[in-house]
Major facilitator superfamily (MFS) profile domain-containing protein (Agromyces mediolanus), 429 residues
Amino acid sequence: MRRVEIAVTAAATVSLTGVQGVAPALPALQAELGITDAEISLVTIAYVLAAALIAFPVSAFGDRFGERPVIAAALAVFGLCGPAVFLVDSLVPFVALRFVQGAAFGVVLSLSIAAVSHSADAVELARSQRTRLVAMAAGEVVFPIVSGAVLVFASWQWVFALQAAALPIAVLCWWALPAGRPSPVAVTGRNDAPRGGFAGAALGALGTPFGAAVQVPGFVRFFVKFTILSYVPLLAVDAFGMTPLQIAFMIGGSAFVAASVAIFVPWLLRRSSVGGLTLLALVLAALPIALLPATGFVGAAGPALLAALVVASGLGDGLLGVLNNVSASLAAPPGARSAFLGATGSIRNLGKLVAPALLGALTVIMPIGGAIAVVGALGLASTLSVPAISRGVRDAASTAPRPATPPGERRRSRPPGRSPRGDDPHDGV
């Protein structure tokens, strides 16, 4: 693995300690600060809201100054905010600290995609994005366990202090990532500055059919994922009396399946298209969620069916995690890649906010199972975005520069999205 991939994978993975890593500590935090259930939700809302609002404008600096200084600075801010919780003793400064850390989190996630997206080949993009997603899925399983172990021996502040691990990774990124602004030559054959500035070029790309369409699967992925994280456990307890350990294994199993299927996305792309696999991924992610109310009609098999559907949704999540990064990278305008992926990250983070908000509103008028089914139905409706994604990927493949053909040799064509490195199913897996 190249050192750039190692560095950005470590950066993206450590940033997960901001949500998955602190979740077990929230009850202890609530008890010590003496805050209500509504107030404790601000700890997460402030974090995700900052990521949604700030990822786009700050990520644009990656196009102007290069990804290295921006990623390193964001990691440093993230790492310093962790142990800073020892200095706060009330809700308001704590939420302010979480807002700052959430902004850094959003920048790290967006630019860690951009840093390994300097290619016009779908399979090559999938290889680099796969490594990142598999490591993050592993973090989603491991970090809550580590935090739980820390809480056995120490206070909740020490769980947040673990986020200081981002500081040495900031140094690693400064060493590993190339200095200077990334060049669009590899994608366009030119080195032109984008018209209208970096943010303007990114917004212009968002207004195209391809640029707009790729936002839909990214939003839906987190819309479904945070539905599972926030409301499926409530359904599991209310309907079937499942224990916290059973729920943890169910959600952990979904993350494990997501990581496992992500490994094979480059291999799948040699045999199918980005659009076709995106359609499959959306159906796999959303259909099990739409079917969750059926668990109430199978008697004693209900808990097993619920767990099976949640784990099955992980198949779609794993595919979408890689495929949407590939299509978003291909839709990004040359010279404004970081800004575009920052805007994409902001839209994805809105999915994390909308899911609990919409479900909270729906549960006022219908049971939890019905509200979750609505999310699944909306996820299935998002498949309408796939034709525009397919056209955009084909256009990107047809306009990408190809290496010069030596005199006397014929250029061999290959289908869009297929790897030029052969068809060995084990290559890169």
